[in-house]
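Researcher: Here's a chain I'd like modeled. Treat it as a single chain, no partners, no ligands.
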Amino acid sequence: MKQESDWILTDDSSCQHVRKTGEHVYELIQMNVVNPNLDLYAVYTDTIFLEDYKESEIAGILEPFGYSSIWDMYMNYAEKTGQIVAECVFESRCVYAEEPFATDLAKDEAEHLVFLFVRQNGG
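Model: Modeled as a single isolated chain. Structure tokens:
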């Protein structure tokens, strides 16, 4: 039986995982390329509290992902809207994150770290 705290793999290419930890609260982890010339990756993790964002802020975050509003996203995802919004917020924040969870890793090391994190944190 799936529980609210179960991790979900949402993007194979970045090993992005998400889990709902409370009402409008999501924990996420993923890896991103930080140096394409050397094929180095960083791992980012964060907890997104959707209630911390105004609707206008969320609309601005969703726009680069092709959505004009939360309603537009709801029409595509219905009950998963909160999760998808959290993923968009997280991906937007990763771009500007000053301190990744880990950095300068080979791809296989980054993948291993993500899956280890998920397994050790209830996965």
